[in-house]
Amino acid sequence: MPDEETGSFADAPRIVHPPPGPRSRELLAEQARLETDAVAYSHAFPMAIRRARGATIEDVDGNRYIDWVAGVSVLNLGHRPPRLEAALDRQRAEIWHALELPTEARAAFLRELDESLPGSLRHHARFLFTVTGGDAVETAVQLADFAQHRSGTVAFSGAYHGVHGGAVHLTSGRRYRAGSPFAGGRVIRVPYPDPYRPVLGADEGAAGTIAYLEHLVTDPGSGVDLPSAVLVEPILGEGGYVVPPDDFLPSLREFCDRHGILLLADEIHTGLGRTGRMWAVEHAGVTPDILCISNAIGGGLPMSVVAYRDDLVPRLPTGFHLGTYRGNPLGLAVGTEVLRLLREDDLLPRTAARGARIVDRFQAIGERHPSIGNVRGRGFMIGVEFVRDRASRQPWGERARSMRAALFARGVLMHTGGAWDQVMRFMAPLPIEDLLLERGLEAFEDALEELDTPVSAPPSPSHPPGHPPIGFPPPSTPGFGPPIGPPPPGPLPLGPDDPGGFSVALRHPR
Question: pTM, whole model, 2 decimals?
Answer without folding.
Answer: 0.87
